[in-house]
Design a protein that fits this description.
The complex is a heterodimer of chains A (about 160) and B (about 425).
Chain A lengths: L3 H17 L3 H6 L1 E13 L4 E9 H10 L10 E13 L4 E13 L6 H4 L3 E16 L2 E11 L13
Parallel strand pairs in A: 1-6
Antiparallel strand pairs in A: 1-2, 3-4, 4-5, 5-6
Chain B lengths: L5 H5 L10 E3 L6 H10 L6 E5 L8 E7 L2 E7 L5 E5 L14 E3 L12 E2 L6 E2 L5 E3 L3 H5 L12 E7 L3 E5 L8 H5 L7 H5 L3 E11 L3 H9 L8 H7 L2 H4 L3 E4 L3 E4 L28 E6 L3 E6 L2 E11 L2 E11 L4 H15 L6 H13 L9 E3 L12 H14 L10 H8 L1
Antiparallel strand pairs in B: 1-19, 2-11, 3-4, 3-6, 4-5, 5-10, 7-8, 8-9, 10-11, 12-18, 13-14, 14-15, 15-16, 16-17, 17-18
Classes of the chains: A alpha+beta (about 160), B alpha+beta (about 425).
Chain lengths: ~160, ~425
Amino acid sequence: MDNIESLISKTIYKASLYLDEFRWDEWLELCDKDFYYSIQAFSPEIDKNMIYLDGTYDQMKSMTEMLPKHNTDRSPLSRHTVVYTIDVDHDKGTADSVSSLAVYQTQLDGINSHVLAGESNLFMVGKYRDKFILNNGKPKFIERITQLDTRRLDKGSHWPI
Amino acid sequence: MPARNQQQWKEVPGQLKPGEYVDSRIYSDKKIFEEELVKIWKNVWVPVCHESELDKPYDFRTVTISREPVIVVRGTDNQVRAFLNVCPHRGNMIENRPSGSFENGTPSGAPKHMTCMFHAWQFDMKGNCVHISRSKEGYQDRLDCKDVGLRRLRCEVKYGGFVWVTLNDKIEHSVEEWAQGSFDCMQKALDAEPLEVFHYHKAIIPCNYKLWHDTNSEFYHDYLHYHNRITGFNDSYFARQNKVFDNGHVNVGSFEVQYDNYEGFESREELSFPHLPANHWEMIDLFPGMNFNLRGSALRVDLMTPLGPDKVMIEYRGLGLKSDTPEERLTRQRHHNSIWGPFGRNLHEDLIAVSTQQSTMNEWADERRILHGRYEGETIHDEVGMRHFYDEWGKWMDRWPGDPELSYDEGLKKAA
């Protein structure tokens, strides 16, 4: 039987796969209804931490449901996630985790697909700082802070990372 | 209308007249690009940063104008000054960090000085050279500190606390004279109380800088944005006026945005900027490539740094009131970034559009006409903003935008 650290680790990897494959609903099923998501970065230019995108469970659900209505760069993003630490608080029934993250973009239609489609580039690096709530030994995301080191995102993206 | 053959494709379409289209070479030609840096960008006021980015004496920011490295510092007298970020000794860049403070010493230098790390020459916050290492031993009496001050640049703090710098010592205008009244629409809002930058990001985009300015100058492209169609398209949106000013600047007039129409978005009413009617949206496009965009609760300012005919760096700043509570700031940040951040609904779409636009205008591509010929009573889908910009561009460049091999006067004569 898996211990809680192993279950948390599997949940993080499962989330990476769902996000890679645009399976937004399945990603959100890994999250508690009180889930909070954000993408953040520290700017040395203005000496401030910045929140690039954030939302509650409901806001992320509505945002992902509206994605098909938006024009977007459909070049897929692939996450390489490595879970570094998991700290479980058994008394509180919570856990914190830090994972290293690199995201690659494989060009599809972003600029000139005839020339560029198929080319993979590093899109961003950073860390996932996750919090979990443990219900009957089952972890669910209660918070994900995607803390980016990369601050030059050029065209950017419509998608949660 | 059938598809056209090569000859038809090269002809001016329909009844469009000169001035209602430009030649695509102005977006791709290397020679034209180099000329633009010299004739335009080295001679205009550029809002390089905001005063809140150098809040205290000894704070600095480093930037680039027309390939020249520039450093902006706040002196002990609280004055903001700008200098070339170049050591007068061997031309090294004096400060490499994007921002910071000279309050503390550096490995090569003393506290409270700008120090070139290469040979430890030191300068005060007014640009005076105050120390040359082994000066007497090396230069005897042939050169001393008074001969080698930094190159100072004209600098003004204006319009909501932006730091404007020009490389042209002999520029004839103050920033206010340069703006020609284009800030009247939002100056009260910008100057009501101190502002603070809460968001900064930059994008290097494979497009000519003018294509980004074009997209800020017309709202016909709102068909691109689901968000803007849902929250905007109504009678007052279509009545929004473009207004042109001398020196190539343009205002896009205001209307009330219906934020609630987009699921998950909220009204900006409670945090609207002072003197700005709730949920309204004013915009200024400044020649040759800056944009002030005040939308309800947040100010966005774009600054372009052209890097090549098909490459531009765009810096995006988001600003709120310095007096914001942490909760207010968070809300402003969310309002700003949900539309304009690197993961926002609109910015990504705009950047895709200009990148794909440029990809058809690379230097190996045949020249073609880019149409700016919509007339709609100078309202929001009228392309008067771009026509006004390119008329100004033609005068600065002495080239006719519709055929850049002609001088401006030759183009005018041909058009007459």
